[in-house]
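Appendix B, Record 12. Input sequence as logged:
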Amino acid sequence: MNKLTIEGNWNEIKGKLKQKYGNLTDNDLTFAKGKEEEMYGRLQQKLGKTKDEIRKEIENF
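Logged structural output:
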């Protein structure tokens, strides 16, 4: 899944992440152009996973 596909399906992906990880909020999952690294940083802190692990999980949705 490429970046454009992820952006287009972000609401669906966000919902799946919130279901899987109940501690995530809309703020944690804010996806704004140019701010992807900030979002990955927030997710790394909340989930205790590496950026690569998070990217792979998002791509698998």
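The CA atoms of residues 15 and 26 lie 9 Å apart.
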